[in-house]
User: Fold this.
Amino acid sequence: MPNPLATKILSSKWTKAVLFLICFLPLTAIIWPFARGYTLANPLEFIQHGTGDWTLRFLLITLTITPLRQLLHLPELIRFRRMLGLFAFFYACLHFTTYLWFDKLFDPREIWKDVYKRPFITVGFLAFTLLIPLAITSTAGWIRRLGGRRWRILHRAIYISAACGVIHYYWLVKSAIIRPLTYAAILAVLLAWRVGDWISRRKRAGLTAAVPQKAPIKVSR
Amino acid sequence: MNRRKFLRAAGVAGIAAFAGKRIYDYAIPSRTVQAGTKLVTIKGPFSTDEKVNTFEVVTHYNNFYEFGVDKDEPAKNAQKFVTSPWTVAVSGEVAKPRKFSMDEILKLAPLEERIYRHRCVEGWSIVVPWIGFSFSTLAKLVEPTSKARFVAFESYYDPRQMPLGRVAGIALPYVEGLRLDEAMHPLTLLCVGMYGETLPNQDGAPVRMIVPWKYGFKSIKSLVKIRFVKDRPETTWNLYSSQEYGFYSNVNPDVDHPRWSQSHERRLPEFFKSHKTLMFNGYADQVASLYTGMDLRKNY
Assistant:
């Protein structure tokens, strides 16, 4: 079933390089109006919404890799997962910086008040903070140091981070809840797939464990 | 080419065309505002000497949910909005209920230019040279009775002209309200234009309210109905979420919105949210007396 051409394309180093450049397109789109000198009524909001949207999108794209690998029988897709996750972190950093710098003018008292008092800031802050250890431990060296099992458990924090990100968006909007709910629906599907996968793997594990018990019966016949 | 291949190619071409159009619109935005009619004005009272925003900003950053929830949508989607003929019906607790045509409204009083600060509940602000006259001028003509204690306002709503209204998330038509003394305050403006011209559609053509000491959503756009009433009328954003958007909604740096601080504002098109928000949006000298003895934390 795996398509040899797809496998070849996915394994090429050029594919990764091209994807790397594509991941900068949203940033280009955000910078574009400034480079062209267009007047934006609220330039900061434009940057903030752009970087926030793309953080969520990259998080969801990253979470799509594992289901796609299995559904399309393309294990090579794993080559892109770390890069996509790091791009989510990259856009999150930009998003977070605009908030600290332009909204709060780096005033620690104001920032603390916001994080403490405003639930939508609190969850956004949490979503960002959770991504930091994941970005740090994304290297092969850290996988070795932690051991695959512990590393995988740690990196499940992306589920919480993505959920917090969606809630952050939902709590921010005034009445246009369709967009945050779309993100929520996609995230729900991606997480539900994992639950389904986990259940079916447990079932399979249960079956294989049961085989040796059945075997003697067959033999005795 | 077999049929399946053809369909696939057609699909790809369709998606590419759609994406291409989106990218083109984005990369080279069209900036058209339908031409307004010039209005003759005199200088009105209460004008601020702060720097006025560009017409560009005020016409391309609008909260007008009937034409889309994004700020740049009304500029595109309101272009074909039909605002003529237009009548404003005044009824309720008045001795002389009547309808005003737009022509009549424009001749009720000399048109004044008033440069007001405009502060949105979302934390941004602009300075706009509005054109109009005090709402009280119109109100006096219909002679409110002693029973009238509030004024209820209603926006035009036609889902055929405003299809995005269905997905706005708020109940439409948009309704707003003021206490009678707030409505009769000389600052409260019945607004028919800005920047020397009639109002652009996305800014609430052809006639709207401007209540400069309250958050922007209290200043209803595209006004069609005015009712003088006994009881406090329902208001759109209060209906949507009453603990976030109070009936009064006076600009107040000390009373935060439950989800964000109101202490500072971003004066568009600046990057930094560095302007301190002023009590009653800087109009405390004129309007603070309307609220003496009231707990403004409770009556937010």
The interface with chain B takes residues 29, 32, 38-45, 102-105, 110, 113-114, 117-120, 171-172, 174-178 of chain A (CB under 8 Å). Residues 4-220 of chain A form one domain. Chain A has one domain: 4-220. The CA atoms of residues 175 and 181 of chain A lie 12 Å apart.
